[in-house]
Q: What sequence folds into this?
């Protein structure tokens, strides 16, 4: 009875889990004891100490859940990595300044020092990354987004990549180019999590679970942002927005935990290193709290937001334009492909020449590093008010913004324009680098510009009630930074990041308003920077359903699905399999009960089918056939009883060969799929030996293709080969006559029914209904990370929807240029086969099933149903 | 060919969407023109003005996407509601204070005024809510969580509930009881969204889409928290954590937009009302920014966090205990059921007596409102340092904490203890109320206590480097508030809420650490307050997979699924349907191809089957049968040709009746499912007339049950009914003899095969595989909001998993007390039917299918397969 077992299920699940855990512990305990034994053999005083360590570790692992230990370790490691990297970058930048400062007698030498340093560092970074792991190039967020969608990207989470990314990133940032650390840090954290997971799997079993790994990667992304900016909350939110479409709230927890721990350690390290007195924000601001801004300043903040939106879209567009341009110019491309390091070197040379402080750099505060620039933007002074500001004597970095001849506004405008294209260009360099920080900086500069203008316009503030509250340009810088970075990345959590970065939340409403406006503008113009890179790199992706696209609610799966599904039936023969493999190129194929019923039973991977087919036509089976045949022939020959010496020689070698092959064939049923072929006696024949790779081109008469592979080539070889090699060669293909017989044999083999017994079938592929809306389909695809889904109607397969169709339908983009063609599916709809009403069509479908059922007992009359038409 | 249509799909989808949109517009345009026509008839000067308004509205709706208009409207309305409510509450509280202050000559009068006021308000609130909409009682967050899971709760989103909630909440909070506004506000915002959605659907079509409504509800929850605390970010995050398991990042956007707008308007209203000079935080703090806290204070913060964790768990436990106690005590229960308003009145009396300022209230700052108390806790002074603090003269609300005889520590401890049980008790009152704010207050008190202790312990601060940084107890209060409210609600976003509430983020790390520790402790001890209420109210829910439950990764669906699935086959007869309906009580039943193949075709709702069955045995068909039979009998009778007068009379009435029934039967094929029965001539016979509601009890011989309904009751009636009524009554059941014939007829009907043509079938119910892990199952269930899923193996139905099994497996809770029974599924596993290996079992399954296929052509031999055994 239904529900009979449910009450005791809890007990069972608990016991089962306990059993598994126990066995795991036992196993790990035995491992541990083996380790202990090994340690005994070790000589030295610390052996006992180690034993205790191991025991302690064992206790730790067995007692407390591994989840939080993993997260703490991850946070710790990432905080250390981040801190060490920051330390190295600071040293690099200091060294450049020191060199530049020391050579102030000669401008040329100064220039050389200023320029050579970054060129060398960037070139090294590019070269190192190229050699060790080219996957480390770039931000890493687009790849992480893809990986978290469930796609496996090879080599993206290896130790090599980790090393390349960390060292490459340190060098790239140490060069002083307008590059960021935040995007790559997401990748570094994920790498770290993946490696830590592998390392931890030595101790426990759960680290091998795939869904757990994905969860941990999601947490790692949060850690990456969190420990980069010491912004745990912003880190979690930013990583969610950037990498996920759907987010599990339970992961959120993990992210918070790890990111907080990481940010904490990161800042504690700064305190221990006496950089800071206590734990504070990274770019601490000191705006007044009692009256942070006036209500009447809000329109100015809104303007900052809207302008940032346009700026962000422009940045993404510019970035893509550069990449596409570099790719399209074949002459440049060829040249650069040869000298891979030339492009980064040239770009670096160009950028660093322009920022040379005694040169053009004096108009754009070229001598300041990114950090110093940002601190200058966020400071509490007003640069434009000459009278009052003079008193403060332009302390520290603000000094750089005062130019004797040029107003601060001009400097800011030049800074914004120059940095804009420089950042867009620099982020296309083949080094590990992010775009967040440069964009953040430009945004801050723009905000500062607006703020300074406002301060110049209203020197005594806007407030009319007597009390003078002067305008704070630093607040505008904060708003601008959040807005522009939000526009480029299409996130709102940059707002939270700036609060955590500056340690002040007093400007929350202006920041939120600006960020939302910037997002609204940017999202309607361009994809986010990461999505743009995903499209450039052609990674598998699914576009978001944007705002206000309410027409998406009206499109149904039946409008977008492909009705002409490739399928195989349960009782098909190998020839059908072969035909299906030849004509389609999908990764998975639907398995239906029969062509008439079309009841979906499951889906099979293409590779499984290929191995099935190659097994059926395998050498072992062929050889077995030949042996049988030859035994029969032998009998016939012995009856004729007049063999020539050459013939017997040949036969002897055949017999030796056959013995080996017999062994093979006796083995093959046990592990039949991916068998390594025996090393061929003749090297040339390896061409023949390779497993069947059926060409996926548009072959129509398929039988010939196979014959090409198996039969026709040996012909040519048999004439090419030297006479002395003939006998061993003929072991495989005894004679031209025999080859023909093999072809015949193959034809026979192809007509046999397929035996799916050893085939791995996914018995529950995801199914949709015709009436499922596009909106729901999108949700399901992105929720479950699907690649395709079958559309069924009462068990009957009627179509398939893959990521491609969905993408097309959502984007509504037309790749067919020129003539507007009538949508081919319209005809389907017009003819009314399925389009009318759901219940009606369902009834029709059911009728067919019904008829089929009746026809089992009755003499079957062939009704030319839809499914029959399709199966042809 | 696969992919043939994909290129032009985009075009098609676009055109299709455009067509649909256009037709929608056309429709709405015609609606609009009708409205215009109507308006023309209206007399008055503003008609033209209205036409312009309508046109303008039309333009707005057609031009800009409705999404953000909806969100802005929602934000605006909620901000207004929140502000007006706050205003009313403030007036109520002021009135109480004024009454209390005015009567300071007589303590008894003062006491009466102090007590009567809240009792009246709470009683009114309880009564009003009870009468208008009992659904408005309580927080609303548990219900919203359930609704967002996809469950339809009736009456929870109606206008009545809205009115009841808003007015009830205002009164409840105006009484000064320790109740919160935040939880109910989530509900109010959702109500507002639902009503607004209904209102907007008058203009456009998309507002009727269900998934869109759910998205809007999710955004509304964010708005609710956001405009309650003027905390947009915290609001979004809190609402996500509290209501969702999986969250779509696209909703996040909506939430941010609406919540920011709402918070903005909410604060702007305060500025316009001259309450504030500019937009600032609700409970603004003014801690020092340069050195917010010392690193060495972190252990103290951690202690606050851990203690809050225990406190939070205790609060949830206490709250549940009170509810369960009230329910279990039948004597109390009965009494309270009669006098529903007595319980709230008594509780209010008790609580307000204890807080009476001249009485016990003097030891717990009873005269302060919640808001004043919180402001006092967050202030920048140190109460315990008598020497220094004397200078400040205990300004404002801090005055209340100084008691001439008792130390401030004692006052704080008394406050915490008293408020703790008061809040736990008060939140069980049948009025609209939340627990967040009271808990937040207790947390702040606890934090303040620790902070004051620290300040007393280290009067010159901990920092050793010369500069004296005194300890800020207000910072501890902030940490405590976030930690305790986080522990009770199981959220980390309370951290963000306190930053936004206080306008300072300088304590970010202590707050984060404390909140995370509090959560870790509380989550391991108790469910969250909302989950606790969900369980008490027995709403459908799915528990979360907690931390470190890594054994969950090892449990598979095959361990928890119910193997004995109730199913119906495509070629079953009505008797089978009847049997299935009698024995099970599931909402949906699986439809399989046949009992042998067990190929899952879809699922059918129970109600559909019931209507199928009742249609088969319907009165119209029965009457038709009777007519046919009577016609036959007539012939027979006319042959006998000696009718009595009574007989002819009866026959005449039968004939009239038959005419009607003929009309009926000619109609029935067109719309057969839910047909309203004709009004019966005799009222008594409605018992017979009602649609078949098959009893779900454990009936074994099912046939009798139906006979009870159809045949046996008329027997008794025919003797009870008066003679004059007999003829019309006999129209239905002409004679006892005839009843027997009807039973015979029904038996015959039951043996007919079911015709599923007009039945609504879900052709793609969600399917899992045996090897799906519990973890993945949980993910899928919570992602898609499933109620149950079928477990299939290559198309064959082998089990079903419902929410119940999943819940049991996750909680591992044993409801069977006493003897430990062997889990019944263990035997399944031991016998090795499925337990061994996936590929092997799959192969077996396939073999069966295979055999079946062969047997179609060959003479079938019955193999007693697993499925056959189950189908019995």
A:
């Amino acid at each position: 009875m239904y529900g009979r077992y449910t009450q005791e299920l809890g007990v069972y699940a608990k016991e089962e889990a306990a059993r598994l855990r126990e066995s795991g512990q036992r196993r790990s305990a035995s491992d541990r004891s083996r380790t202990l034994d090994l340690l005994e053999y070790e000589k030295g005083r610390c052996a006992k100490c180690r034993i205790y360590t191991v025991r302690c570790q064992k206790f730790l692992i067995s007692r407390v859940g591994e989840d939080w230990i993993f997260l703490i370790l991850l946070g710790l490691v990432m905080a250390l990595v981040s801190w060490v990297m920051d330390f190295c970058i600071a040293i690099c930048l200091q060294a450049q300044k020191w060199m530049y400062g020391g050579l102030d007698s000669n401008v040329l030498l100064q220039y050389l020092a200023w320029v050579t340093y970054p060129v060398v560092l960037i070139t090294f970074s590019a070269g190192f990354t190229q050699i060790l792991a080219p996957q480390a190039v770039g931000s890493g967020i687009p790849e992480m987004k893809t990986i978290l969608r469930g796609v496996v990207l090879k080599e993206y989470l290896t130790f090599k990549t980790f090393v390349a990314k960390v060292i490459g990133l340190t060098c790239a940032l140490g060069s002083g180019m307008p590059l960021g650390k935040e995007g790559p840090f997401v990748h570094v954290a994920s790498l770290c999590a993946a490696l830590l997971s592998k390392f931890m799997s030595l101790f426990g079993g759960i680290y091998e679970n795939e869904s757990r790994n994905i969860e941990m990667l999601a947490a790692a992304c949060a850690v990456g942002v969190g420990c980069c900016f010491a912004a745990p909350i912003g880190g979690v939110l930013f990583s969610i927005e950037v990498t996920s479409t759907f987010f599990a709230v339970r992961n959120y927890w993990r992210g918070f935990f790890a990111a907080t721990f990481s940010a904490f350690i990161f800042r504690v390290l700064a305190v221990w290193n006496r950089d800071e007195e206590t734990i504070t924000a990274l770019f601490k601001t000191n705006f007044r709290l009692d009256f942070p801004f006036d209500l009447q300043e809000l329109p100015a903040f809104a303007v900052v937001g809207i302008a940032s939106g346009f700026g962000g879209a422009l940045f993404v567009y510019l970035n893509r334009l550069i990449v596409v341009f570099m790719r399209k110019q074949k002459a440049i491309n060829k040249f650069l492909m040869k000298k891979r390091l030339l492009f980064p070197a040239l770009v670096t040379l160009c950028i660093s020449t322009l920022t040379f402080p005694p040169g053009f750099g004096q108009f754009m505060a070229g001598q300041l590093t990114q950090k110093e620039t940002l601190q200058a933007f966020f400071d509490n002074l007003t640069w434009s008010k000459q009278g009052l500001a003079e008193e403060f004597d332009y302390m520290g970095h603000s000094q750089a913004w005062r130019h004797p001849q040029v107003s601060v506004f001009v400097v800011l405008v030049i800074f914004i324009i120059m940095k804009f294209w420089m950042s867009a260009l620099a982020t296309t360099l083949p080094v590990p680098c992010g775009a967040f920080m440069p964009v953040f900086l430009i945004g801050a500069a723009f905000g500062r510009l607006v703020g300074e203008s406002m301060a110049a316009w209203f020197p005594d503030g806007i407030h009319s009630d007597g009390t003078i509250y002067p305008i704070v340009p630093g607040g505008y810088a904060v708003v601008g930074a959040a807005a522009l970075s939000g526009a480029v990345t299409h996130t709102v959590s940059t707002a939270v990041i700036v609060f955590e970065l500056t340690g002040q939340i007093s400007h929350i409403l202006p920041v939120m308003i600006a960020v939302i406006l910037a997002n609204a503008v940017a999202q309607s113009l361009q994809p986010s920077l990461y999505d743009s890179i995903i499209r450039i790199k052609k990674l598998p992706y699914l576009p978001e359903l944007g705002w206000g696209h309410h027409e998406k609610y009206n499109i149904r799966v039946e409008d977008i699905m492909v009705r002409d599904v490739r399928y195989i039936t349960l009782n098909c023969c190998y020839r059908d399999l072969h035909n299906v493999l030849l004509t389609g190129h999908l990764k998975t194929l639907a398995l239906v009960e029969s062509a008439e019923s079309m009841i979906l039973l499951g889906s099979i991977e293409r590779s499984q089918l290929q191995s099935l087919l190659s097994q059926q036509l395998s050498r072992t089976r062929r050889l077995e056939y030949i042996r049988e045949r030859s035994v029969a022939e032998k009998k016939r020959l012995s009856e004729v009883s007049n063999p020539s010496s050459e013939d017997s020689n040949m036969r002897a070698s055949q017999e030796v060969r056959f013995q080996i092959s017999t062994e093979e064939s006796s083995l093959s049923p046990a592990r039949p799929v991916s068998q390594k072929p025996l090393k061929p006696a003749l090297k040339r024949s390896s061409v023949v030996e390779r497993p069947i790779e059926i060409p996926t081109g548009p072959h129509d008469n398929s039988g010939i293709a196979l014959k090409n592979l198996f039969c026709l080539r040996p012909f040519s070889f048999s004439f090419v080969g030297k006479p002395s090699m003939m006998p061993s060669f003929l072991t495989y293909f005894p004679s031209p006559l025999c080859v023909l017989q093999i072809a015949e044999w193959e034809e026979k083999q192809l007509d046999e029914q397929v035996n799916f017994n050893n085939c791995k079938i996914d018995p529950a592929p995801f199914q949709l209904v015709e009436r499922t809306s596009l909106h729901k389909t999108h949700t399901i695809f992105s929720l479950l990370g699907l690649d395709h889904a079958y559309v069924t109607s009462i068990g009957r397969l009627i179509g398939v929807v893959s990521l491609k169709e969905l993408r097309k339908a959502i984007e509504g983009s037309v790749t067919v240029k020129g003539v507007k063609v009538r949508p081919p599916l319209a005809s389907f709809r017009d003819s009314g086969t399925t389009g009318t009403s759901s219940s009606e069509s369902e009834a029709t479908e059911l009728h067919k099933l019904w008829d089929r059922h009746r026809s089992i007992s009755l003499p079957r009359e062939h009704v030319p149903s839809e499914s029959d038409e399709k199966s042809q």
